[in-house]
Amino acid sequence: MVSFTTIAILGAATLAAALPTATTPQDASPALGRRTGATHRVEAGFAGTLRFEPENIVAEIGDLVEVHFAPANHSFAQSSFAKPCVPINDNAIFSGFQPATKGVQAEAPNAFTIEVTDKLPKWFYCAQTKGNHCQMGMGMVINQNFDGGATLDQYKKMAAWTGVSISPPIVGNGGTLAPPSMPFNGKA
Ligand SMILES: [Cu+2]
């Protein structure tokens, strides 16, 4: 007697054989889900301020978040909610520092794009220590839980009392550095 399990395995093997090029290298990456086609533009250092704009994003799984860097030397780094201005762990998302010259460039040549892979709150800060950007309010959140106390306002209050910011160890981790896919808004 042939079990259902055996039939299922045989069925899968037959199907796989019939689809020799079912995946492309891009599709095979475990970090990439099904894209929604939506891209959220964030500007780090919006209009010369020490802010991300927008700084509280609601995004769906498969959305992209494209961070642009206004003049100065900003970055986009991942922390936990409880400890702003320091990496969440050794695998923290990090754009590295992206300098641009005020009056010469509207923004840094590269933007940093991440994909939203779940709906859990993700907290980010700028790791620039010159001027204490994180402590001065350069923090943001993707998918804040609006029913709880873990708010962006609270994150920023804790950041203000945090010591010197620490950069995550891996530059470019968790995203892609590339020329922006959409224009800067020009309010650098
Ligand atoms: Cu900054």
UniProtKB/TrEMBL annotation:
Q: What CDD domains does this protein's entry cite? A: Cupredoxin (cd00920)
Q: Does the keyword Signal apply?
A: yes
The UniProt keyword set, sorted, is:
Signal
Give the residue spans that cross the bilayer. Answer: none
Q: Where is the signal peptide?
A: 1-18
Q: What is this protein called?
A: Extracellular serine-rich protein
**Organism from which the protein derives:** Lophium mytilinum
Its taxonomic placement starts with: Eukaryota, Fungi, Dikarya, Ascomycota, Pezizomycotina
